[in-house]
Write a structure and sequence with these properties.
Rossmann fold, Immunoglobulin-like, single chain, alpha/beta, six-stranded mixed sheet
Length: 717
Amino acid sequence: MNTPAYQDETKSFKERAAALVSEMTLEEKVFQTLFNAPAIERLGVKAYNYWNEALHGVARAGVATVFPQAIGLAAAFDEDMMEEIGDTISTEARAKFNMQAKYGDRDIYKGLTFWSPNVNMFRDPRWGRGHETYGEDPYLSSRLGVRFIKGLQGHDKKYMKVAACAKHFAVHSGPEDLRHEFNAKVSEQDLYETYLPAFEACVREAKVEAVMGAYNRTNDEPCCGSKKLLVDILRGKWDFDGHVTSDCWALKDFHEFHMVTKNEEETVALAMNNGCDLNCGNMYIHLLQAVKDGLVEEKTIDRALTRLFTTRMKLGLFDKPEEVPFNKIGYDQVDTKENRALNLKASKKTIVLLKNEKNTLPLCLDKIQTIGVIGPNADNRKALVGNYEGTASEYITVLEGIREYVGDRARIFYSEGCHLFKDRVQGLGQPNDRLAEAKAVADMSDVVIAVMGLDPGLEGEEGDQGNEFASGDKPNLNLPGLQEELLKVLKESGKPVILVLLSGSALAVGWADENLPAVVQAWYPGAQGGRAVAQMLFGEYSPEGKLPVTFYRTNEELPAFTDYAMKGRTYRYMTNEALYPFGYGLSYTAFTFSGANVTGTPETGAEVSVTVTNTGKMAGAETVQVYVKSPMAGAPNAQLKALKKVSLAPGECKTVKLHLSEKSFGVYNEKAERVIVPGGYEVYVGASAPDKRSVALTGKAPEKFMLTAANAKVISE
């Protein structure tokens, strides 16, 4: 008996996929374009559900390691760690998949196609889903996204470990309550300079297997059916060879809210003809009628299915089980001791020390008898994990972490202090019904640790539970509810008050910066987060995180939320002084930079070298940051273009070498050309951005170098 061509392992995956598709009826083909693709028993095709999530750990399918939320991982400024975490996630993903397959479980969140990472730009701090991203900078997001994808997809020469997906393509960052009808209007310059680079890196460098379209329109075209985005750029300019999926139920928005098509048949034709291969939703069942009406050719569906089955074949789902190395990963690889240790290490690396007046931190337990832990996030598990999360086998809140660390060396008093955003904790109580308790705790304590901020019920995706606050987005940058009022009362106690913020985005905490001795940004630090925070507060390690977003002084300085022009947004275009700038973060130890040198030209690229020495008394890590400022009129402020995390023992030094390509100097113009213009280019080498506020906060200025471009040049893409 002849082996069917799609089972012939001597052929390429794409050839086998095309052969398999050729055996299907039109109806079978149509149902395979849905995310919950049914089995085709006569062809040996098993049911497969494409919908799975792994933003910061395998999500929504039971126990898995729950790492810090993506925005926190970004604060580590650590590319190597991102790949290590991606690799750990994909190991757990394979272990869970193998176990589920053994018991016949092919449900949603049980496949090997993971709709992560989210590499949208966090352009506005009010956006509720910003904590799913790697922040506001295209370069940082590119580097972290690439390494995370490589960790997920693996390095086997034949098979993918799991399939990653870069989302949401493109120009997508709120408002959440308008996303189904919103038209994001952007210039060509902003599109290419800000919104596309992270996606391009994921496609060209990481070879990401899938890309997800966004809900909104971009310059009038719905993203999941955009010829410009999906045909001209993604497959035309970038040579993307994987598959495209819609966001979930995004296609029905074409005719219901965007009003660019008249009915379901026109909608599915627009999406399919422009290369949206997979439908998260059920709209593609209308492809049957669209083919009959001549709106879609059957060969176009064949093209989509060839891409989809190529992905499944790359995952080894059509080969002999013993041929696929990842099938050997057992369920004992989920939630291991090593994975929990990596999770704790990641949590430690993400925490950013924003203020530390007179070395208030670390706290010395020998001098403390009583500790007050106060605030709505002190014992809030939701504030550990963010959204798109899995289920941890153990959660350690900040309160629990402090109790565990302190033991019986000091007495701990606790009060919730206030509700996270309401004016009372108990529904039948009077406003501020925990204030007296908080005052008592402060009065009895030698030091107060105030744990405040947000949780994913206050910032997240439209439709998530708990989004009664503001449809997922933040109405402003203030601490919600009574939190700032409570902070002022705690300050009045006369005790030192340390503010620990758990949030996925920037908050305007100007009062705290002016009045409290120490401020810590801990993000949503993962299931082990409470341990990481406690150990940082008491000096078990030195904080090393840097801000991946700007902390503004007030939301009043921001452009309108619906304005997608970058002018006035993020450190790259803002003119006002930040409260805490992008790239900023303090340490318990001290670092010096010496021997910095930059050689080369903008037209050919440059080499950067600098020696970093730990001159303090604690081991620690510093991030070498290199920024470039183009002389082109209208160019962004100095932009991050290279980085390297360096870990050093006290007294130790290391020389760091970094490369700046010609693209590091190029800036896009309104024709979407990346250009080098004649003139002087500023290159800054240091531990922060070169803005005045960063210099004032750190007491150090990055070293400045000038490189001259003699000629104009358009950089080929």
